Amino acid sequence: MIPLVIRGGLVFTQNAAREVVTADVLVKDGKIAAIGENLPADGAVKAIDARGLFVVPGFVQAHIHLTQTLCRGLADDRELLPWLKDRIWPLEAAHSAETSHTAARVGIAELLTTGTTTILDMGTTQHHDAIFEAARDMGLRYYGGKALMDQGEGAPKELLEDTDTALRTAEAQKQRWHDTSGGRVNFVYAPRFILSCTDALMRKVAERSRADRVLIHTHASENKGEIEVVKQITGHQNLRALHELGCLHAGTVVAHGVWIDESEEACLVASGAAICHCPGSNLKLASGVADVPRLLKKGVRVGLGADGAACDNTLDQRVEMRLAALLHRLQHGPTGLSAQAVLDLATIGGAAALGIAHAIGSLEPGKRADIVCLDPGFALPSPDPVSALVHGATAANVRHVFVDGIARVSDGELLDVSLPALMADAARDQRRLVERARIAR
Ligand SMILES: [Zn+2]
């Protein structure tokens, strides 16, 4: 791989001191080799002129559903449980390998062109290999796996498997995909949520994730109706129930955590499990507001994510950053969540939630070269670059994106993908899903 130097940008290092410096970034063999002024370069080095650009760590989204990208606009204006039962589950059940592949490609195209380089993704029950293939081929750093569902009132039969089949097929997926593409593509266990998984399945997942050192990715405590049903069935609050089943540990990422009480916060702290905050999704489904400032104060690791296109329409992490920066002011006042705290959620915090902060999430020598160059545009002038990035980044244009030092977006264009052709496939495949799912558009 040809060494690369990104010259003269404003580098948001996200290192321990959170330094923002005008510097060059030298990339060799997929890693950051050096950051400094006027770094020497021999003739073989490829140079990117980043003067006037923000150079930031690739965004990390700790909760995404690529499989739902083609469900965009098909499930508006519903709360969680009817949203799932009336729309999302029938649409997921209608997927083929081909439509799954298209959904993943469209989602990854949006993620890369808006500066996200790493995701934690939850699939549906079937066809998840097609999603792994898209992640492998398009160069995103990917953690994901099929959704595990062995029960569920109102779930279509296509989404339900018996416990052994769910575990066996997940295991086979792990064998095929975990730690592939040089460590960029990884398998995780994804029990969908406690209402779609038997205790036996949850306990087995807990056991295997610990033994294999593989992440658990699940949902909990998103919606008031959901937590009431969980309490009726398990006798516990949602996170307490997961804790009792052994599913909360330092390798667990729980999406949402909106409706949690003090005893559940204690479960998070004791277990080391992480929360992914999804402000756009929580607002669109009218679920509520997770108390992120409080969780952070308690020492809980928190990441940020868009969830899916069916509950958040955009997968642009900059929108989630802006929402997170504003939303918590309602309860905590104007200093509720600082711009720096929000940038942390979107980068190093998400990396820590996934247990990979040693490798990504900041721009420091030795880390993987997952780098985004943004033209700040109308985010400037502003004396505080972090404030400009967090509050104004939706005004910025993503110019260049690198994953493992490989260019995936150059001069604002996604490389190696014809977007018009891809979007035509997406429109065709969305029509197919609607027809097969027999729902009204
Ligand atoms: Zn979700």
Descriptive overview:
The chain has 441 residues and is α/β, with parallel strands linked by helices. It has two domains: 4-57 and 361-410, Urease, subunit C, domain 1 (Roll); 59-353, Metal-dependent hydrolases (TIM Barrel), CATH 3.20.20. It has helices spanning 80-93, 97-113, 128-138, 163-177, 199-212, 224-234, 238-244, 262-271, 279-284, 292-297, 309-312, 317-327, 329-332, 339-353, 385-392, 419-437, and strands at 4-12, 20-28, 31-36, 46-49, 54-57, 59-65, 116-122, 141-145, 147-148, 185-187, 190-191, 216-220, 252-256, 274-277, 302-304, 307-308, 371-375, 397-403, 406-410, 413-414. Strands 1, 2, 3, 4, 5, 17, 18, 19 and 20 form a nine-stranded mixed beta sheet that branches. The mean pLDDT is 96. The structure holds zinc ion. Zinc ion (ZN) binds at residues 63, 65, 122, 219, 255, 307-308.
